[in-house]
Every structure is written in C-alpha cells, then in structure tokens.
Specification:
Blueprint lengths: L4 E4 L2 E4 L3 H14 L3 H16 L5 H43 L2
Antiparallel strand pairs: 1-2
Length: about 100
C-alpha cells in the first residue's frame, strides 16, 4: 500500500519514506492532533512496515479470496475422489461381468 504524499504547513512529505513519514507524524502531533488521527498514522505505518504493505481492506479481500480458493480446491478434491470411486466400481463390475 503506497501512502503517497501529503502536504502539511507548506511542506510536502513522501509518506512511503520512513524519515519523511516520521517528520510528518511529528508535525501532526505537535499540532495537537486528536487521538484518532495519531492512531490512524500509527496504523498506516505499522501496516506499511509489517503488513506486507497492504491496507486492512486489501488484507480482508485477500483473505476472502484465499478462503474461496481453499473451498474450490476442497470441492475439486471431493469431485476427483467421487470420480475415482466410480472408476473403481465400474472396473469391479466389468471384472465380475467378464467372469460370467
């Protein structure tokens, strides 16, 4: 997740650069930002550093897609098992018929 740039008090900060991000965060804190804004900045930085660069929404979407993929793979495996069972039964039946 690229945070892009923000302009604050006439200076543009590149939030993807840790040094500039920290300067931006300090400027916001010095301004007397509320707790929610400070927490949002901390969350953005944490996600950038430790979350693989994904936002919470992107991470949720990714987890949803992984869940669907796992479900699809399990369904395919079940279908393959049923097909194998049919083949075994058909082979057994053919073998029995050959004995008549």
């Amino acid at each position: 997740m690229a945070l892009g740039t923000r302009t604050f008090k006439g200076k543009t900060y590149n939030l993807d650069d840790n040094t500039e991000y920290n300067e931006y965060a300090k400027a916001i804190i010095e301004l007397g930002a509320d707790e929610d804004t400070i927490q949002e900045l901390a969350n953005q930085q944490y996600n950038l550093e430790f979350g693989g660069g994904m936002s919470q929404n992107e991470l949720r979407d990714f987890e949803t897609l992984i869940g669907r993929l796992e479900g699809s793979k399990m369904k395919q495996a079940g279908q393959a098992n049923r097909a194998r069972q049919r083949d075994v039964m058909a082979g057994g039946l053919a073998s029995m018929m050959a004995n008549f």
